Structure to design on (646 residues):
């Protein structure tokens, strides 16, 4: 099993920033429709023998960062449930709007690297709150606010069910990783833009 | 974040409306005039101050210093570096930090709740070591202009937005440099420019003179090398600054005297680091006055977090609260000086030695601090210098200007040994950028 903090650190690098994610989120499918799909994840998606890389290739036509951590069963199962959500649109019917129109690979990685390390994927099918947490997280990183909610409400509802908040030490460690990634990204963006006029020598 | 602001992998080019969100017709006309001026240098960049109307209003005024230290320490406790500090921790409870700490983990000094949308990218080369990235704050950078105006006023000089003279020219003198023309949103969109005095930046030397004569900036800012070039090139004949600011490295007393004589205006030497922002300033050769802003200066022992006795030379350690994106507490500057009381009761820094506290070993084995060499070099008219002592104990010195024979005699008397001395005419002959003035193999 990979170190939980290392998985969260990998997610910090991968995510591209939570405030940015909320800023770009548009009205999406209902929370209930996503949660219901999670409940119906087929056993074959969770089969330990399945190659995460092959599954991601088939479902997304591309790769996911979490495939690099597929020796961790939490990551495997979390990613597999995310891939099921995307695949289900072809197997059952598309959600409205379709998840495939969003940032599906990022959302799969969010389930695998951000939620699965702190809330075991087995609970996502058995526990309503954990399922809500997974569904809300998936929608956010896929680029959506749950239907009928605004971004501020959705953000506070996700924060309220965040399993990470129950482990203070881990939450602080994650905050550190996230902050460092945010600063590095902001500085890099600032570097690519123009500087501002300066008036004296230092 | 507005992704449309840049195409991936390319330098972003902002529109003028993004560079100066409140620009008016007069500002547009000034930009067009200086950009297309027949004698203009080849501008290498375009850049603005990005201020919204609210920000332009805010930056005209200094930040309040009421209870600032308490608020600053509270902000510091919202950083990764200090979040374990208790609520009642006093300044002295914070361990000192140094440049290497920022190089290692810059983000640990940015408050977790900082408004990152205000962040600009700054770099500080320093005198040694890796370049340091600094998260600059858009308002703090813009407020820097109004600090210059306020410092000018305190020296009796008036800078006003009532004509078409450029407000500021920030001068450099190097083979390659960023140059741009801008307007100042918080100063009636008056023009300013960053200019490279190096001849290679201009079509002809005469074009440089004509351009400067027409711009005739109210404020000239630069470092000693670029300011000395103004004199060496005879540009004092066409410029009428209300005030001159020198920064980045020490301004020698003889160069200050030449500038004052040539321009007949106050010459203000500002001490500060990019990471701390301006700390202290002086308009004569006395002590630097610590600025009345969010800055707190301590003088500590170089290797222990212990204050030196009052009036004794030690390392300058700064707590700096002007940049909301970088919560520095007890930052070791690597510079040395003495804390003194000025006549009006304010605090000042005397015997400021930049960058290091280099010592030289005299022939009899005693250690001579570089401040003593500075006194001799300045007294005999050197505009700049570099002095090195190698492992073999030999001392080699290069001076720009000054009384060569007198300096040789003085240095040999100080160190009790012959000194290999070379005199060059101009500061630039010591090297571009920010040359180290002293180097010695004697350990700190």
């Amino acid at each position: 099993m990979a170190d939980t903090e290392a998985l969260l650190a990998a997610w910090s690098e991968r995510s591209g920033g939570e405030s940015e994610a909320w800023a770009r989120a548009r009205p999406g499918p209902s929370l209930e429709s996503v949660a219901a799909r999670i409940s119906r994840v087929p056993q074959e998606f969770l089969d330990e023998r399945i190659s995460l890389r092959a599954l991601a290739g088939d479902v997304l036509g591309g790769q996911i960062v979490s495939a690099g951590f597929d020796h961790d069963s939490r990551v495997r199962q979390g990613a597999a449930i995310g891939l099921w959500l995307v695949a289900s649109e072809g197997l059952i019917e598309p959600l409205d709007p379709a998840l495939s129109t969003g940032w599906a690979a990022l959302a799969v990685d969010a389930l695998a690297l951000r939620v699965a390390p702190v809330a075991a994927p087995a609970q996502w099918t058995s526990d309503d709150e954990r399922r809500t947490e997974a569904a809300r997280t998936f929608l956010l990183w896929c680029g959506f606010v749950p239907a009928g909610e605004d971004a501020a409400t959705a953000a506070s509802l996700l924060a309220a069910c965040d399993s990470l908040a129950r482990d203070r030490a881990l939450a602080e460690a994650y905050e550190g990783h996230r902050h460092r990634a945010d600063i590095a990204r902001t500085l890099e963006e600032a570097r690519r833009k123009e500087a501002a006029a300066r008036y004296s020598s230092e | 974040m507005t992704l449309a602001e840049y195409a991936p992998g390319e330098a972003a080019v902002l529109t003028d409306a993004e560079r100066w969100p409140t620009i008016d017709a007069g500002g547009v006309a000034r930009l067009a005039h200086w950009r297309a001026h027949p004698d203009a240098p080849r501008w290498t960049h375009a850049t603005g101050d990005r201020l919204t109307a609210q920000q332009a209003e805010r930056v005209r005024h200094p930040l309040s210093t009421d209870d600032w230290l308490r608020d600053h320490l509270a902000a510091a406790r919202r950083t990764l570096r200090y979040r374990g500090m208790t609520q009642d921790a006093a300044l002295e409870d914070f361990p000192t930090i140094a440049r290497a700490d920022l190089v290692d983990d810059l983000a640990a000094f940015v408050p977790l709740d900082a408004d990152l949308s205000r962040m600009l990218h700054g770099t500080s080369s320093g005198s040694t070591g890796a370049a340091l990235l600094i998260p600059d704050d858009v308002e703090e950078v813009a407020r820097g202009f109004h600090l210059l105006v306020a410092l000018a006023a305190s020296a009796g000089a008036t800078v006003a937005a009532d004509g078409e003279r450029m407000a500021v020219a920030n001068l450099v003198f190097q083979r390659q440099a960023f140059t741009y023309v801008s307007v100042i949103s918080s100063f009636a969109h008056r023009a300013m420019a960053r200019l490279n005095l190096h001849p290679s930046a201009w079509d002809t030397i005469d074009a440089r003179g004509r351009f400067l004569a027409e711009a005739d900036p109210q404020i000239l800012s630069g470092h000693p090398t670029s300011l000395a070039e103004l004199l060496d090139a005879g540009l004092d004949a066409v410029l009428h600054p209300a005030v001159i600011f020198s920064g980045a490295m020490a301004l020698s007393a003889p160069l200050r005297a030449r500038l004052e004589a040539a321009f007949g205006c106050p010459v203000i030497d500002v001490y500060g680091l990019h990471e701390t922002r301006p700390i202290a300033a002086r308009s004569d050769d006395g002590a630097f006055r610590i600025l009345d802003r969010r800055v707190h200066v301590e003088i500590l022992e170089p290797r222990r977090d212990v204050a030196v006795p009052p009036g004794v030379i030690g390392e300058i350690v700064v707590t700096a609260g002007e940049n909301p994106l970088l919560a520095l507490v007890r930052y070791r500057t690597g510079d040395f000086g003495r804390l003194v009381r000025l006549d009006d009761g304010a605090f000042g820094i005397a015997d400021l030695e930049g960058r290091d506290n280099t010592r030289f070993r005299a022939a009899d084995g005693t250690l001579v601090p570089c401040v003593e060499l500075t006194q001799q070099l300045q007294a005999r008219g050197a505009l700049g210098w570099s002095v090195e002592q190698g492992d073999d104990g030999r001392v080699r010195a290069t001076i720009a200007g000054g009384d060569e024979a007198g300096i040789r005699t003085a240095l040999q008397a100080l160190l009790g040994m012959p000194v290999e001395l070379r005199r060059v005419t101009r500061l630039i002959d010591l090297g571009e950028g920010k040359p180290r003035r002293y180097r010695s193999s004697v350990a700190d």
Q: What stands out?
A: Chain A has eleven helices and two strands. Residues 108 and 118 of chain A are 15 Å apart (CA to CA). The longest strand of chain A covers residues 26-27.
